[in-house]
TrEMBL record:
EC top class named in words: transferase
A GO BP entry: glycogen catabolic process
Modified positions (N6-(pyridoxal phosphate)lysine) in chain numbering: K677
EC numbers: 2.4.1.1
InterPro entries assigned: Glycg_phsphrylas, Glyco_trans_35, Pyridoxal_P_attach_site
Family statement drawn from the similarity comment of this UniProt entry: Belongs to the glycogen phosphorylase family.
The protein's name: Alpha-1,4 glucan phosphorylase
PANTHER family hit by this protein: GLYCOGEN PHOSPHORYLASE, GLYCOGEN PHOSPHORYLASE, LIVER FORM
Alphabetical list of Pfam families matching this protein: Phosphorylase
Source domain of life: Bacteria
Organism: Allochromatium vinosum (strain ATCC 17899 / DSM 180 / NBRC 103801 / NCIMB 10441 / D) (Chromatium vinosum)
Reactions listed under catalytic activity: [(1->4)-alpha-D-glucosyl](n) + phosphate = [(1->4)-alpha-D-glucosyl](n-1) + alpha-D-glucose 1-phosphate
Gene Ontology, cellular component aspect: cytoplasm
Amino acid sequence: MSTPNPTESLDSERERTRTGLSKAALKQDFLDNLFYIQGRFREVATPHDLYMAAAFTTRDRLLKHWVESAQVFKTSHARTVCYLSAEYLLGPHLACNLVNLGITEAAREAGEELGLDLDAILEEEEEPGLGNGGLGRLAACFMESLSTCRIPAIGYGIRYEFGIFDQAIEDGWQVEKTDNWLRNGNPWEIPRPKIRFSVGYGGYTESYRDDTGRSRVCWRPAQVINGMAYDTPILGYGTANANLLRLWKAEAPTSFDFQAFNTGDYYGAVYANIQAETISKVLYPNDEPEAGKELRLKQQYFFVSCSMQDMIRLHLNTVGPLESFADKFVAQLNDTHPALAVAELMRLLLDEHVMSWEQSWDITHRTFCYTNHTLLPEALETWSVSLFERLLPRHLEIVYEINRRFLDEVRMRFLGDEARVWRMSLIAEGGERRIRMANLAVVGSRAVNGVAELHSELVKATLFKDFAELWPERFHNVTNGVTPRRFMVVANPRLAQLITKTCGHDDWILDLERVRELEAHVDDAGLLEDWRAVKRAAKQDLATWMQQAAGVRLDPESLFDVQAKRFHEYKRQHLKVLHIIRCYQRIKQGQSQDLVPRAFIFGGKAAPGYFMAKLIIKLINAVGEVVNNDPQVNGWIRVAFMPDFNVKNGQRLYPAADLSEQISLAGKEASGTGNMKFSMNGALTIGTLDGANVEIREAVGAENFFLFGMTAEEALQRQMSGYRPWEFYQSDAELKSDIDLINSGLFSHGDTQLFRPLTDNLVNHDPFMVLADYRAYLDCQKTVSETYRDTPRWTRMSILNVARIGRFSSDRAIREYAEHIWKVTPKRIEPAHHSQS
Ligand code: 8GP
């Protein structure tokens, strides 16, 4: 018999308290963390202290999985996906990590025994809003699904000190407040002071001959800054796999410029320091490119350069020679923001690792894949050649050389077609010469995809038509998805429980297709009743919150009609406003017979410099002020604007919606993901045939979807044959009277000019064809009201929406990327013992 080794038993004891999943272990670790990390005891702890202790307790358990995953990935040389994204709209971590660890209930009970309310602790978390909207949130869903699907992955991005601004509404206008999310510390990240890279800007290049007599180039940057890694573990659901989100923070390379210091220029030296740090200071709050913003280009290059250097370091440390780099890594470009990575990897291979052009290009081209997220011409990134040359002289040479070789290929294929060469060039000529980042991304990638079927077809037929003719095999579709863990289990626990009870299992959380089992129960009176009760409770919760946050009273018995997304004219929030005004006028004229009581709820931010979008926000609030204060109508309709729509507030909104507004002009919304989140929480959609709406409608059944409006093709036809919104205004008396009512000053305390820029634009230009779709939208809303009156029918439709939404899990999207694009297989991490105690 061996004598027990006291050190060993102490170790396993410690491991149990730090990683054990039982209530007792959680309680003990929570108190330890409160004491040793926060320096507090229970009686004097602030709500923030309690949150931090809960977060550290959860993180301890994540780290176990994460370190084990890292060990396995390293020793097995697992092929790894590197997701390159300038944005990650992560949302609060704690609740999702508890779910993915499977310890929500244990944590709740542990809290209760300590006299603490888990929900109050969850409310304390300040969310990392490191993204603008759909694209950034998609990256966050994908990171979670990559871990859930057990795909080894690293997410690379920027650790912005200030994320997307907080939105306040003052006098009906959007006001931006800085998002100081790091103010109270971030318990989820682990700083890695040893993982630092230098990033250069400016300067000049020099040619020289190497030992073998080959001509080489050396870049001598004028400024060098450092990027330091901050790692956040991302655990999957129902698995021990955890991946890494690695965000870069910019800093000065040394704390002082000693030369400047010695010559007495102390302030100059410190100033250089501060300047370096500005690079990762703030997220650009725009969902369109920032024309000519030097700092934005610096940001892009900064994170791309750190990430490429890190991948090379990892490869050299684990696998070895760089020849096999593209076998070890696949790098996904999330839109064109990281497209500079193509030029940067070329530079590193050519100049730093002295490879030939051919070999460097072969590796680079096999490494990258690119996702396009928009067709809007104004959203396509280009950089002026002169700015690019000033900041990245070496990269400009590389882009020119890529372009020269590429255009030779085009000329060979399409003899004499110089117009095509001109269109496909990486450089836009004529006027100021500009680099087309989308073209660089397509040329530098082996796969290109759109984010919904319609979008991917339009990508091939319009934006990249020439490229699709040259390389048809390069183009794919992967329809977006969202994670059901956050958007169902965490956001809507009542619904999740009901689904689990009805299906008899919770396997649907991992395999969302299995919610289809609900269909077998769609005629159970008991389910219908429970379903309604769940929706009703969520509406009550939202009503309580809105009363407090926006001072608007909402009646949970009314239809909750919700549009929540970024404000943009193409998304047509103003079409919904016209509908509200029509309802208002009908009620005033005693014609309310077709209506049902409705709460019109909006949420979303406008880019700070986007005047028209901000004016639409003001209009919504102005209409709300009149409607909500008019006793003749406010029993029928209410208008509410949710301030600061972000991930956390979205989680309050999706469960409470009866109707989801997805009313963009067909052909403009690449996919949409809010449409999926609403539908999986039992909202019915009113929408156009745009983006993923098309596929959602196919999945849930046309009879369970309110369709209206022109198709993308019809819209294009109408646009080409000369669209004249004025004619709609003149010929539709109701439309005219709705617009005239805005102009009358009724909603602006008599100011007849305030909304003129909006109404004039609608009547004279209307680039997103609001007026052309107005009548169809109103007719469709009438059908919505009729259907809502038939409660059992509506409830049935709601159940079927959820039952058939399985395809829109981001797990499915990730599996498609893995199989068709990345060619990577799952790597299972076996949970080590001691985890359950
Ligand atoms: C969005 C698309 O507009 C949306 O349709 C799609 O669902 C989403 O990407 C995810 O694919 N695009 C953006 O959010 C976007 O282009 N943002 C850039 C400014 C950051």
